[in-house]
């Protein structure tokens, strides 16, 4: 299936919004699966159709390094359980998406390694897209109206990393891949998702 057909397939699963309605779409997938590129295409298509879109990248809301590195836990545990404050995001992002006029969120800044409080306005009528990894963890899954899962083999995903990054394969083995394996086994995202895109 080519990219145009994929976009059309996805658009066919998104309803026309009535006034005052919000629809929450999760775009899930493991690292380098292609979900960010797909999300950009979907957002552009929606805006071309004059649909109001609010986009959240879950990686914008990770915690400071001291909370996710050298904590005494295994590296995969740090990445899966500590990279985000899962409970805080559940209460301050997910639980407020349907009704709040604005959100107060802690956005991570890489250069300063700090979280900054930002205010995000939400229109009464909008399609809310949340894009990122591990989106179907049990704490968040029930908030979505629909979830798209972008599936891609590990070897292909890893080949998309830079040569410098690929030289750090031990970090992938201990941190990222073990966390991915845990997620796939614990949450079965391929089965839970409403739409699966093979990329």
From TrEMBL:
Query: Does this entry carry the keyword Transferase?
Result: yes
Q: Which GO terms describe its molecular function?
A: kinase activity
Taxonomically, the superkingdom here is Bacteria
**Protein's name in the database:** Uridine kinase
Q: Which UniProt keywords apply?
A: Kinase, Transferase
Q: What is the lineage of its organism?
A: Bacteria, Bacillati, Bacillota, Bacilli, Bacillales
